[in-house]
Amino acid sequence: MTGAHGMEQVMEQVPGVSVILMPWWIAAAALGIFALLFCLITLFVLKRVRPAGGELHMPAQIPIGSQVKVRGWPLSGWDARVKIAALLFFMFSAAFLRSVPSALTALVFSLALAIFCRVGLYRILVRISAVSMFLLLILVVLPFSTAPAPGDTVLGIEGLAPFLFNVRGLRDAAVIIMKACAIVMLMEPLFYSSPLSEFSNALISLRIPPKAVYILNLATRYLNVMAAEASSMLWALRSRAFRPSATISGLRTLAGLFAILFIRSYERTQRLQEAMALRGFHGEFPRGRLGRIGAADIVKAALFIAAGLCLHLMDVVWR
Amino acid sequence: MHISDGVLPTGVTTAGIAVSAGLFLWSLKGIKEQEIPKSALVTTTVFVAALIHIPIGPTSVHLLLSGLAGILLGRGAFASISIAIFLQSLLFQFGGLTAIGANSLIMALPALLAGWLFRALIGRFGARAAALAGGLAAALSDSLSSLLLALFLWMSGEQFHEVAILAMTSQLPVIAVETLVTAFMAGFIIKVKPELFGEPILSALSRRVGQGAHEAEEAGGNARS
């Protein structure tokens, strides 16, 4: 089947679709430029993000929220309970948007907050690189998988009939990517603007079961101990000429590492638990007191809630 | 592969959060006070496992270990894995915070089944089958996880059907690697520290040992008479 036939079929089946036929070399050039850009960005991010040492490297220190890293108005001094609730409201508002202008506004709002609070481009890039594979999959597949509907513009490539590039699919993918980036940029302000103890207390105040918060607390405390141990064990393996591979022996070695890591950590926690039981631990950590919610806290929350509602209003208007 | 923010439509996101919140509370109820440190440890292990990449051909995969979590914790695994996913999205942006309901269901619901399968197999065949049971449990858990991932994407609209299929196929190497790693780990742990598997499996094991001793005694008795 030639390209022209494919286009005619689409035009016959779905009236109202405007079809733009591209010569194959334009499509190839566009694809080439996209691939080049993608490779450059990936290389840049990988070089910045992944430390030297290859695939089996892992950070010996995981940045948990024990220290406050994100400061500045409106986050500093904001009651943690109100802050979490307001930021979550805004995040969910952003996640449910459907039009380009509203998603773009959400992105600009989050970016402004990130700049205002000096989150740092590097930390944002690290986070975006973590979701980039999934978003890239959507960006590449969605324009081709969206079926032409009346009113759509479809790009066809000469000689490649089955591949119809639907501009609406590209738009949908762009909306998803903008929403995801807008939410990603709020993650650092959400987690790193108050100490972990305050964050946990706020979660308990927000009706998250205390048991879950204790598990979360203990897990973050074990995190760096376990990461440091895993890291040194991996280096020990490396110094014995172990190369990571998906072979039976390679996987058996890794499984042994994980198993012994878990068993050692378990024995350590048992000792710890016994020591804590001796000192009268009943499964409840002492909780610090949270201050009173003041007018300033409410005003800041109102700002975020209003922003979230405005986004939805925009969504209704522009849809 | 976790679903990122902004992909799932409103209905699917809300339903995912509602169902996973219910399961989370149920699972949390099953964790006794003295089991809190162990649950936290499993949470940490699931988290740390995701940081180690194993190269396969041109790409690399990371372990999920949700099957192992199910084996070690049983009912408590859902809460433990959900908290690990929450931490992953807070610290490293693996998956989105607004998609946490869907992501918890994808990872943690199959872990419950894996735990059940492991217990059933050990109860039936004894400790010798630990490695095999562990491998089967992990294979079941990861296959179901990739199916659920595809299901969530499939429910997001017709244009996501191809994405769903691609996302599901990309999980195949993970399933293979994870099956082997969990099998080796289960075989290792049952030899070195079987009490990690918890009371139901220990009693199943001691029952088997008791039966074995009884059979041996009978056999000995028959031989003497």
What is the number of strand segments of chain B? 2
Spans where pLDDT lies below 50 across 5 or more residues of chain A: none
Number of helices of chain A: 10
Report the structural category of chain A: mainly alpha
What is the overall silhouette of chain A?
flat
Spatial separation of the terminal alpha carbons of chain B: 63 Å
Percent in strands of chain B: under 5%
- The best one-word shape of chain B is globular
Write down the domain tally of chain B: 1
User: What's the CATH first level of chain B?
Assistant: Mainly Alpha
Structural class of chain B: mainly alpha
Largest interface pair: A-B, 85 and 77 residues
Distance between the termini of chain A: 37 Å
Number of helices of chain B: 9
> Can you give the mean pLDDT of chain B?
89
Rounded to an integer in angstroms, the radius of gyration calculated over CA atoms of chain B is 19 Å
- The order of strands across the largest sheet of chain A is 1-2-3
Oligomerization status of the protein chains: heterodimer
Notes on the protein architecture:
The complex is a heterodimer of chains A (319) and B (225). With 319 residues, chain A is mainly alpha-helical. Chain A has a domain at 3-21 and 69-194 and 294-318. Helix content of chain A is 68%, strand content 5%. Chain A is built from 10 helices and 3 strands; from the N terminus they run αβααααββααααα. Chain A has a 3-stranded mixed sheet. Chain B has one domain: Arp2/3 complex 21 kDa subunit ARPC3 (Orthogonal Bundle). Chain B is built from 9 helices and 2 strands; from the N terminus they run ααββααααααα. Chain B has helices spanning 10-29, 36-49, 66-73, 77-91, 100-125, 130-154, 161-169, 172-192, 199-224; strands spanning 53-56, 59-62. In chain B, α6 packs antiparallel against α8. Chain B is globular, with a radius of gyration of 19 Å. Chain B starts with 9 loop residues before the first helix and ends with a helix.
